[in-house]
Fold:
Amino acid sequence: MMPSQHVSGDDVPEVRDVDITPSGSLPPQKIAQIQQMAETGIYEIRGAGGKRKVPSFDDLSFLTASISRYPLEGYRERCDTTTVLGTRHAENPMELAIPITIAGMSFGALSATAKESLGRAASFMGTSTTTGDGGMTEEERQASDKLVYQCLPSRYGFNPHDLRRADAIEVVVGQGAKPGGGGMLLGQKVSERVAAMRTLPAGIDQRSASRHPDWTGPDDLTIKIHELREATSWKVPIYVKVGATRVANDVKLACASGADVIVVDGMVGGTAATQEVFMEHAGIPTLAAVRQAADALREIDMDDQVQLVISGGIRSGADIAKALALGADAVSIGMGALVALGCNSAKIMLDGAEMDVSDDYARLGTKAGYCHHMHTGRCPVGIATQDPALEKRLSSEVGARRVTNYLKALVMELTTLARACGKSNVHNLEPEDLVALTIEAAAMARVPLAGTSWVPGQERG
Amino acid sequence: MAALATSSTQELGPITGTSVILDCEELSTREINDALRGLEAGSHVTIVHPSGRHNLAVGLFEHLDIVIDGHAGYFIGGLGAGPDITVNGFVGWSVGENLMSGTVRVRGGASACAGASSHGGTVIVHGSASSRAGISLKGGTVAVGGDVGHMSGFMAQAGTMLIGGDAGNALGDSLYEAVIYVAGEIASLGSDARIEDLTQDDVDTVRRLVELTGFDHISPEDVKRVASAKQLYNFDALKGQEY
Ligand code: SF4
Structure:
């Protein structure tokens, strides 16, 4: 026998303080992940977005008015938020009251009530909402004054009748949370209705293609966009959405292909389900993407013809103001709107009474504030589910009211900052209004590091 | 033809006649599609001098009888729900893409992605079709008299493909519920596609398609039936990298 099994009496080592310094390369979370992979042979698939910290709009700050610039009066003076998207070729551009739109999220990933709530809130605020994989639901069309119809690689539920009922079309090339990755909807969410809309058997783990079935490169995309225009009599704008990777190239190619609007979705964007490896290790942060996209449009003299919409991790009026200052014409929000609906909340309102759903989070192995379990279909607050009982936990009245409140507050924050920068129109915010708090952010946003005139990568003037 | 309208859209006016000629040498694609959209159901139209023009006859909902007299480009008859279109020539990519109903018949060959994502209706190619014919099929029928290129029937969800000649590599990769009938040789099957026994229903289906298409070189009893083995319907970790 080994001597260590005979440790006794004077040989017993002293109990010492436990050393809990985590390993640099193998912190407890990574160890747990490896052990999970070893046990199951499965990589992690989950919802929401990336969890690691990347440079973000939080790393910028506004240089609001001072002696050299004067501000507008906070609550009194008008600060215009009107936003027009799709002025290049469309007969009927998208005229929005605010520069905040609701991003594409599928019926399937979300419940019909969640989609309806988003549509109602967007309509109330004079802005647009967007369909998603799986097509357009009647509830959503009815609830949304301005509805963007996505043309995705999967083409689930895509049809020319809905195409002609849309107020704009968005050709989706990629998504920030999983650029190049296609989509997935795990079997537990593929209900009979979802399956029928997608022409698939119920209950299967459904893969959404990563490539479009009828075009591949930019030259084909030009003809595809032309087809969509012909099919809609050149009436509505055509957006092209890309996940933020090679942003400058993609923006220029989308312009060359005839897009009216380009949507760039950064890596911090959310999703209903994808491999974790995608969320954490593909794409570039929204902060970097917005400036690259805006510069690319300027380089080819298209910044006054093609509008830029930025999405991925937009949560506050400050984020929106910063995105606009860096060159976006509008932003799109997904996860922020879901949180407003009640995502990650411990309580819900059911039949007029408050109900604590903490136990349901616990059953998913999480708790309110940390949930990323869209992929399971067991959403405790009834948003990301197809389960009829869970769906009832969200009423479209409550949902629409909450998202409307959120959008209103975002607009107030946005205009507060714009007025303080002396702007009577939020679209007049400019990079010169910003400084960066970190060197990384300064390099990505191409604005000076706070307190200096230094922009990394640029010659000092 | 019973009546001959002029080739100018201005002069087309409210067309009630039964026959119209539209000339691609005089009209833009937009003018042609607008003119087609203005026609009443049952009209007969001939589009002349197409010279490889893309996006002809797209997004039409009425039942129209359209002949495109020559070679045409991409997306011919795409996003359609109703018309019967015949192309007396070859076509480019994605003929009849996302078709909902009606027919697109190509007397020549077709380039890539013939009938992509079609939900209904029939795309008939008398010659051969290039790669990815019937990709993402969602209930439509794609019938090719000759050969098809690689990755044909990729991720086809529902509907039927009939291939009168040979099929290239990776036929029916990641198939769902669509069924592919092949009269000739199959270079290789894609992931999760397998050859299954032919039933009487299959023979009847193929016979109907042979009658519809006129592909009488196909013997309904002698085709191979390719369908999904359904092993990819639910993610299986241990299969991991095989697909
Ligand atoms: S609460 Fe619902 S919507 Fe929010 S992360 Fe969890 S599952 Fe997704």
